[in-house]
């Protein structure tokens, strides 16, 4: 690929209390590329994302970040409860010192991008549904125009219909604004829907088990292609057996 790498990880390893959860992770993401990170619960997805984003220092390995500015979206929207939707979205813009008029214009722009109804901008988080709160979180992340976004299972708590709408939002925003992303998910269909490339973490803490390029382009894949690709991988590709087969939360239950 000729585009420059925006995230380069070499030999990344990490352990908690002497127990290795990641080892020898080598990863290279390119500008505008959306990569989904899959793996069973406890395989180290969130740890790897936190290391890549600079929240956590790895025990081993090196990182290079070539992007200009990143943003993060988590499973919980993490909104300020005492601030309105508009004030939450404007928060990073205030921190960067942007003036009031420019801020208001940008809030309106990203709220529209997140399909958040302008009539609800004056509402507080407690007055919003889960899906509306997650739209605010996405609008807030996009407000400072990041060129890279980290998503940590952002839609896991949402119902399937809303989930697909939010996935569409990410696909549309990523292609319109050209940001790259590392998107952690448990869901192979979600990964196939939104990503250019799917990375799979090994269940036993040995780093990346492998990767697959998703045929086609995010946003241009129809529902049938997404379904058949995901189910084909789960049924016939050994790389994906571990994703659903050895979940830390269900291990030893039967
Ligand atoms: N701060 C911590 N201290 C100790 N152990 C931790 C800590 N954070 C994570 N772990 C352990 O490290 C392993 C990897 O955790 P991590 O959250 O990165 O996995 P994950 O793949 O994101 O899991 P999930 O899908 O359940 O969110 C797990 O066994 C977890 O219990």
TrEMBL record:
> Could you tell me which InterPro entries the record lists for this protein?
AAA+_ATPase (IPR003593), ABC_transporter-like_ATP-bd (IPR003439), ABC_transporter-like_CS (IPR017871), ABC_transporter_ATP-bind (IPR050166), P-loop_NTPase (IPR027417)
Q: Indicate the segments forming the ABC transporter domain, all copies.
A: 7-228
GO molecular function terms noted in the UniProt entry:
ATP binding; ATP hydrolysis activity
Q: Does the keyword Glycosyltransferase apply?
A: no
| Keywords of the record | ATP-binding, Cell membrane, Membrane, Nucleotide-binding, Transport
Source domain of life is Bacteria
* Family statement drawn from the similarity comment of this UniProt entry: Belongs to the ABC transporter superfamily.
Protein's name in the database:
ABC-type taurine transport system, ATPase component
Source organism of the structure: Serpentinimonas maccroryi
């Amino acid at each position: 690929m000729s585009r420059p790498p925006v995230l380069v990880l070499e030999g990344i390893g990490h352990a908690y209390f002497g127990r290795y959860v990641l080892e020898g992770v080598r990863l290279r993401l390119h500008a505008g590329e959306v990569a989904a990170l899959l793996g069973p619960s406890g395989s180290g997805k969130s740890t790897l994302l936190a290391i890549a984003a600079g929240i956590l220092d790895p025990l081993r390995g090196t990182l290079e970040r070539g992007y200009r500015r990143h943003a993060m979206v988590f499973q919980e929207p993490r909104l300020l409860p005492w601030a309105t939707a508009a004030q939450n979205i404007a928060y990073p813009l205030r921190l960067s010192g942007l003036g009031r008029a420019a801020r208001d214009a940008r809030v309106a722009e990203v709220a529209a991008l997140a399909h958040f109804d302008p009539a609800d901008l004056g509402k507080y988080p407690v007055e919003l549904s889960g899906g509306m709160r997650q739209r605010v979180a996405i609008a807030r992340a996009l407000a400072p125009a990041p060129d890279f976004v980290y998503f940590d299972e952002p839609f896991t708590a949402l119902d399937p219909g809303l989930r697909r709408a939010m996935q569409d939002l990410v696909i549309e925003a990523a292609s319109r604004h050209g940001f790259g992303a590392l998107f952690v998910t448990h869901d192979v269909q979600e990964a196939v829907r939104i990503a250019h490339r799917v990375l799979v973490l090994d269940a036993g803490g040995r780093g990346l088990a492998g990767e697959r390029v998703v045929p086609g382009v995010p946003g241009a894949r129809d529902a049938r292609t997404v379904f058949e690709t995901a189910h084909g991988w789960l049924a016939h590709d050994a790389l994906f057996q571990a994703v659903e087969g050895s979940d830390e939360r269900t291990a030893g239950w039967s």
